[in-house]
Amino acid sequence: MIDDRPFSGAKIVLYSGSHLIAYLRDDKPNIPFPGLWDLPGGGRELDETPAQCAVREVEEEFGLTIAIDRIVLNRRYESRTRGGRCSFFLAAPLQAAEIGQIVFGEEGQRWRMMSFDEFLGEENAVPDLQARLKECLPELK
Hints:
Elements: E1 7-16, E2 19-24, E3 37-38, E4 41-43, H1 50-62, E5 73-77, E6 86-93, H2 96-99, E7 110-115, H3 116-121, H4 127-140
Parallel strand pairs: 1-6
Antiparallel strand pairs: 1-2, 1-4, 2-3, 2-7, 5-6
């Protein structure tokens, strides 16, 4: 059964071994989570699926083309606000060579490879993404 309810966007864990790509958000007061460590992803455009949304954002933000069939995790999270749209949390493995091919886009201050434990323990990371990673981590190991 296809779940075609509206959603706001998707975030994706791109990982190699026990490390993931994280980026430091811009420190602008008019954006959500300014100055916090974040994962690739963003808002849905038109009628994209969660996977299409995530891979488009990865290409825009990091210059990487990730095939949808590489996605190994695709979870829906309901909005915490009444009437709000849900979002998706996905994961896909990276090939080691892809890390060297990253071309960081115009959003954010910088990126880096961070261990799962570092991201989970980072006090300046998006809290909801830390909780989702912790929940999904057994499936990524």
